[in-house]
Amino acid sequence: MAEPQHEVHRPADTGVVARIVADVYAECLADRSGEPADYIPELAAVQPDSFGLCLATADGRVYGAGDVHAAFTIQSISKPFTYALALADRGPAAVAERIDVEPSGEPFNEISLDPVTERPRNPMINAGAITAASLITGRDAADKFDRVRRCYSRFAGRELGVNEAVYASEARTGYRNRAIGYLLRSFGTIDSDPDEAVDRYFRQCSIDVTCHDLAVMAATLANNGVNPLTGERALSTALTEHVLSVMTTCGMYNAAGDWVSTVGMPAKSGVGGGILAVLPGQIGIAVYSPRLDRQGNSVRGVAACRALSRRLELHFLHVTRSAHTAIRAEYTVAEVPSRVRRSTEEIAVLDEHWHRTRIYELHGDLLFAGAESAVRAIEERAGQLDALVVDLRRVGDVSAIAVTMLADLHRELVAIGCQVALVDPDAKLGHLAAGDSRGQVFHDRDTAIEWCEDVVLARHRPASEPACTSMSVEEHPALAALAPDARARLAAHFEMRTVARDEVVVRRGDSRSGLYLILAGRVRLTFDDADGRTHRLVTLTAGMSFGEIPMLMGEPFVNEVRAETGVRLAVLGPADFDVLAERAPELKSALLERLAAVAYAQVDAAVRAVAVRGGDY
Amino acid sequence: MAEPQHEVHRPADTGVVARIVADVYAECLADRSGEPADYIPELAAVQPDSFGLCLATADGRVYGAGDVHAAFTIQSISKPFTYALALADRGPAAVAERIDVEPSGEPFNEISLDPVTERPRNPMINAGAITAASLITGRDAADKFDRVRRCYSRFAGRELGVNEAVYASEARTGYRNRAIGYLLRSFGTIDSDPDEAVDRYFRQCSIDVTCHDLAVMAATLANNGVNPLTGERALSTALTEHVLSVMTTCGMYNAAGDWVSTVGMPAKSGVGGGILAVLPGQIGIAVYSPRLDRQGNSVRGVAACRALSRRLELHFLHVTRSAHTAIRAEYTVAEVPSRVRRSTEEIAVLDEHWHRTRIYELHGDLLFAGAESAVRAIEERAGQLDALVVDLRRVGDVSAIAVTMLADLHRELVAIGCQVALVDPDAKLGHLAAGDSRGQVFHDRDTAIEWCEDVVLARHRPASEPACTSMSVEEHPALAALAPDARARLAAHFEMRTVARDEVVVRRGDSRSGLYLILAGRVRLTFDDADGRTHRLVTLTAGMSFGEIPMLMGEPFVNEVRAETGVRLAVLGPADFDVLAERAPELKSALLERLAAVAYAQVDAAVRAVAVRGGDY
User: Fold this and answer.
1) With a CB-CB cutoff of 8 Å, which residues 306-365 of chain B face chain A?
2) More confident position, B225 or B433
3) What percentage of chain A exceeds 70 in pLDDT?
4) In this complex, which of B17, B261, B369 lies closest to A246 when CB atoms are compared?
5) Is B224 annotated as a binding residue?
6) Does any CB of chain B come closer than 8 Å to the CB of residue A380?
7) How much of chain A, in percent, has pLDDT values that exceed 90?
8) Are the Cβ atoms of A376 and B15 closer than 8 angstroms?
9) Between B323, B529, B608, which is nearest A323 by CB?
10) How far, in Å, CA of B446 to CA of B338, rounded?
11) I need a surface site. Which of A184, B238, B352, B607 has the fewest CB within 10 A?
């Protein structure tokens, strides 16, 4: 069962938050005012001073204090859940024809039909609740009720059952509710057997729950209808919103206004002594304490909800500004270059035009406000950009409106000549990946940044300096330090090799196998991290070299080298190299100097990138 | 004035969001049903088909369509704002003694006192609004009204004025409201001159606003009471919450339940044709269209609010999961090492014990739910940690409860032997920085990570290998490659130098000035980024060296070198070095090899860190 399995994580009674819950519990424990409901002996028979308090987060952590596992009947707290099932069974429109959603200034057991619409004012008064019960679908009465019971069980995350004694007593004495049932039948609000509907209502009110159950049911409502312990969906997001709306205006009978002001959470109470409150998206709260106030709400329950709302600032209109910002980080190819090692000419171009690129990392769930802030920020800068990357890897749910807005933005930017790429491995904007922008959706940021750099290079590379994509050994910069004749002599020692795309040139752990000069094409050095994921360390292109370190230090290769494209290599074998190093130490020195210089330039760049990024975000 | 200055940013009628607003505007434009209010000729005289729609974000971006600058009288939309001022003037408790906050199923102009409390049911019906007007403080009637007008002006971000013609007409014909005033006086609900209160109410209803004004007023409520255009606070956060609560339950008269279900935003409408709606923390919406439905609400206004709520998913119970997560990133010193270059021995220790460190970057505003998720995640891991860093640089507002929770967590961790450091340059947890943890609050992450590594090194460094903090030239690893005699000979050429703490050893741009070996102490290499901020590139300690590259390549120093502590250096001057390089090329080679090896090891480490972090978060 979800709950114990959950408890083993760590007992709910230690830790910072558990202590807060315990404090509030202790604070409210003293109050022994009020009396348990006594209209039937079974309710009067409870432990009047029993007290349980539970707080469950929308992701399923349950904190509790007191009698959190004592059973009691759910009573009126059942109303929103049967209403929810009726909405799911019949659809909101059909239900709206039978039950209004307006607060009624009247007691819960008032007949209270709207004089104009002749409909029960709302589903939280008995008339509305009995009507909701009449709308549940099923093969027969037994099946219909079992669907109700199973629905509650999905919210609670465990199989709930009926307290037969309480049910029998309710059924025996519930004259007023029977009267309501017949009246509803006479108005045609109920068009089936009213006795069956009223009986189902009695049964649903007699379902046994614990404080822990109610907290999980509340957390399920807080979690958009998905039970956070079982992962099972108990209600659609849209209907969850609707049920919470009705609880907001009609949940606490005629104290609704005061409740919204002082507690600020959609809630429902029952004469069994339970109260359930929901902070949408965040928290579910449940209290059990049988002593009731004049309005039929649990005395300690109301006090505990007020205290928690005040101390934890749980009011549902208490908002965070951060909910508004979807841009997690924002930078250019200067702060975060791709891991393609660029030539001196390319570096010069990027140094001049880096500011015409922008990478935006979005995060969080993209609702309208978040998307609006992101779209606005991007629109304000797009005019000065050649290429823009939107990184969606850390985005959660994307609302329909956000997808529309981003697709619209995409067209807008392309129209003004700013090229756009997405990092969207999970296709969160699936349809954006299709069609014209297909080629600009990447699975990782590094490749997207490489694309970004390529756009800038394509636009701003001086016509006079076309990219040098192929060369001879003599032309290779590695030999630049040598006099022409020395260069020619050395070149003769190199062995030419061509490697097919994706072929491995060198394996991790291979011993020194020569000095490799790249004459054409691209090779990629990769390594695997602790989790076995392969990362690109760097991509090398024509005019660059590898293998020097194993060569000079006699160490094995630490990274795999693989051809990204067809590659043409010139290799100076170990034997030749050693002979050379001996005969022409000045050549070895030249190589080493160049090597050290390149290496230090890279250290510098890499560390600067980390330093600046560490500062920026 | 704020609004035009704002418009120059970029016209509100282009861009993705502006188009959405324009769409909704066009969608609602067709409906010409309903009639303008006509109980006074001045209201009947408006352009019946005038229509304006504005959406303003909580950070002050205003999108508009149609007649957004047409003036009309605010009418009942004034009620929440005068109520707000009364709450500020008298305090919530005193106001609560005069006005309830319960929805009344009755029309707005009903006398409607609660039979039990004899108080107006809520401040959104006339009886409650007139009572609120009677509670405004001031020297005299004129001053009291001007305080009301200035209060509205703070919300709107510009000076508002009265439409005298409408006022005169209201004052001439408002018999029913005068009756209400006298009745309230007879009950003692108003204990001052009722005529004055009613007159103030007439004046406030006659204040001219535009659709743009109302949107900014709504955005100010959405922004916790701070006008996002002027930055001026119009109402405290707590009172803003209270006013929005009352608007939620009582704002739309007897359609409150339906409004909450289908629109889901606290709102207020007026017979002038305006509607104001608020999505707390995110959006303010305003509509102006004089044709009213039977309930006295603007026909297009209601339609536009429904359409925007549906299309933009603005329902205030529609929540994002991400609001729940305060942990922005989580990693160890393995992924993000400090920029202190560690010795081989230290690297060995860190390679073994990196998992006993953890850096948590928090972000967003820390309300309870966010703090709970962070505290829980930290508590679950703290048992296996030696040192933990909480980076608060990206945290916004920190609620009182979050401060308490983090302080409590801090004590808890220290008690189980996990050392804690904060990165909190702005002292967001001010009092946490005090007392015992003072020494563990850092201004930047890099220093905090260095501290983290030091804790691990202090705990796990083998007793057999104490940190080598001082050495002679002969002992310096740079000379390790040499035979003992060669080493001794070379050592003789070095000049000893001691540098005081914070003294500059080498300036950026200095030409080759020698090969520097660190014998004791620490030096820091720094560089300035594009914004002129100085970053630590690396800190070097005893046994390390610098100046090789300028030496070998003849390039100037690219970074400043400054003593972090008192430092003892051994320097081999350029002349000596060149002679050496000539006489003993094998020594130069040895130096170069070591140099290249060290450099490539660093490139590898730096790039891996970037690669892994790029993938992880």
Assistant:
1) 311-324, 328, 334, 336, 339, 363-365
2) B225
3) 89
4) B261
5) no
6) yes
7) 52
8) yes
9) B323
10) 5
11) B352
Q: Do A155 and A167 contact (CB within 8 A), yes or no?
A: no
d(CA A568, CA A504): 13
Q: What are the C-alpha distances in Å from A409 to residues A153, A253, A372, A509? A: 44, 47, 11, 48
> What is the model's pLDDT at position A617?
31
Q: Which residues of B touch A548 (CB under 8 A)?
A: 596
A452: left (phi over 0), alpha (psi -120 to 50) or beta: alpha
Task: List all residues 6 or more positions away from A179 whose beta carbon is below 8 Å from its beta carbon.
Answer: A111
Q: Which of B320, B581, B345, B224 is nearest to A396 (CA)?
A: B320
pLDDT digits (tens, 9 = 90+) for A535-564: 888 899 998 888 887 877 777 888 899 999
pLDDT at B395 over 90: no
Residues of chain B with CATH 2.60.120.10: 473-613
User: What is the location of CATH 3.40.710.10 in chain B?
Assistant: 16-312
Give the active site residue among A253, A331, A360, A516.
A253
B253 a catalytic residue: yes
- Partner B contacted by A599 (CB < 8 A): yes
Of B25, B63, B83, B201, which residue is the catalytic one? B201
A140 and A66 Cβ atoms separated by less than 8 Å? no
**Any known ligand binding at B167?**
no
Rounded mean pLDDT of A100-126?
Answer: 79
Q: Closest-CA residue in chain B for A251?
A: B257
Chain CA centroid to CA A331, Å? 23
pLDDT band at A6 (very low <50, low <70, confident <90, very high): very low
Q: Is the dihedral of CA B395, B396, B399, B403 positive or negative?
A: positive
Question: Mutate which of A242, A607, A616 to disrupt the B interface (most B C-beta within 10 Å)?
Answer: A607
pTM across the whole model: 0.82
B254 part of contact set with chain A, CB < 8 Å: yes
Q: Do A444 and B401 touch (CB under 8 A)?
A: no
Whether A611 contacts chain B with CB within 8 A:
yes
Confidence of residue B508 (pLDDT cuts 50, 70, 90): confident
Give the class (CATH, top level) of A327-460: alpha beta
CATH class of A473-613: mainly beta
Half-sphere exposure of A165 (CA within 13 A, CB side): 10
Is A83 assigned a ligand-binding role in the annotation? no
Catalytic site includes residue A76: yes
Please tell me whether the interface predicted TM-score (ipTM) of this complex is above 0.85: no
Task: Give span(s): CATH 3.30.750.24, chain A.
Answer: 327-460
- Over residues A20-75, the pLDDT tens digits come to 899 999 999 999 999 999 888 888 888 999 999 999 999 899 999 999 999 999 99
A585 touches chain B (CB under 8 A): yes
pLDDT at A154: 98
Note the pLDDT tens digit of each residue in A170-216.
999 899 999 999 999 999 999 999 999 999 999 999 999 999 999 99
Q: What is the pLDDT of residue B223?
A: 93
B83 belongs to the catalytic site: no
Phi, psi of A63 (to 5 degrees): -110, 135
Active site residue B245: no
pLDDT score recorded for residue A4: 39
The whole-angstrom separation of Cα A352 and Cα A460 is 9
Q: Which positions ≥6 away from B617 have C-beta within 8 Å?
A: A394, B328, B329, B330, B331
A258 touches chain B (CB under 8 A): yes
Check B102 against A394: CB less than 8 A apart: no
Q: Do A379 and B317 count as a contact with CB atoms less than 8 A apart?
A: no
CA distance B615 to chain A (A): 8
Give the separation between CA A72 and CA A74, rounded to whole angstroms: 6
Residue A431: Cβ within 10 Å count: 10
